[in-house]
Specification:
272 residues, 8-stranded mixed beta sheet, 10 helices
Length: 272
């Protein structure tokens, strides 16, 4: 791990001032916000269709330290949507491919690679090192592990999902207490295996992952900067075929097994 720059450190090089000039022009960002981004540590879980635009925009924005966790190697069938990789890297670990792209885009940022499967031990070891976790994974057991770990470890979570022509996005900050809901207030338990198909079974329009990953990056940047209205307590649903966005309210469930008063989930022992 590299030393974290302080968010109070407003000392920028000429190159940084030039690179981030369109951010610094924004009253809501400015040099103070840019210093916050440089001090931030964000973990991207999944270097795939969501992780690619997420990584690109977080790196371009100057998020000082970006962790990338994935255990897969790049396959030809990934490239229809995972646009931060390239054909000549097929067979390479995805974390290395994404890290190479992000470092080339912005050498000012530090990219930490974690080539491993996310299990409870990995979450307990890695999540505390980051300020914010972004879930770009594609299966329910991993999504529930990430959601539980973020609540128990006190980390905000920006969670996106895609399937076919549809996308979903929310931000969970249930560790801050009411009124912020957790992921289990929305879905108490994972669906039975096989009920909800995956992208590898049902397909996905590549550009849909690009939109959702970019929205996810935007929410992560807003959270770090402390600007605007966060998505905590709201879920965005996008149907690309209808070209319609809907926003639904999410309420904290007082009986929730994770964040409710009588919570029964107190550790990650239920996760492999
Ligand atoms: Zn809850």
């Amino acid at each position: 791990m590299t030393a974290r720059r302080s968010a109070d450190d407003l000392d920028f090089t000429e190159a940084e001032l030039s690179r981030y000039s369109r951010h610094i022009l924004l009253a809501e960002v400015g040099a103070v916000g840019q210093a916050r981004l440089r001090a931030a540590r964000v973990l991207i879980v999944g270097a795939g269709g969501l992780g690619a635009p997420l990584g690109l925009y977080l790196a371009a924005a100057g998020v000082g330290t970006i962790g990338v966790l994935d255990h897969d190697r790049l396959e030809l069938s990934n490239l229809q949507r995972q646009v931060a990789h390239s054909t000549d890297r097929i067979g390479q670990p995805k974390v290395e491919s994404l890290a190479a792209t992000l470092r080339a885009l912005n050498p000012e940022v530090t990219v930490e690679t974690h080539e491993r499967r996310l299990d409870a031990a990995a979450a307990l070891e890695l999540f505390p090192r980051y300020d914010l976790i972004c879930d770009g994974t594609d299966n329910f057991p991993t999504r529930f592990l990430i959601g539980d770990a973020c609540h128990l470890l006190g980390k905000p979570l920006v969670s996106a999902a895609v399937l076919r022509f549809e996308g979903q996005l929310s931000l969970f900050a249930s560790h801050l207490g009411p009124p912020h809901p957790c992921h289990r207030c929305l879905h108490p338990e994972p669906p039975p295996p096989g009920l909800v198909p995956s992208c590898s079974e049902a397909g996905v329009l590549g550009a849909v992952t690009g939109v959702m990953g970019t929205l996810q990056a935007t929410e992560a940047l807003k959270w770090i900067l402390g600007i605007g209205e966060s998505l905590s307590g709201r879920l965005i649903l996008w149907d690309a075929l209808d070209a319609r966005f809907r926003t639904v309210r999410l309420k904290r469930d007082p009986a929730c097994a994770l964040c409710g008063e009588g919570a029964t989930i107190r550790d990650l022992s239920a996760h492999r």
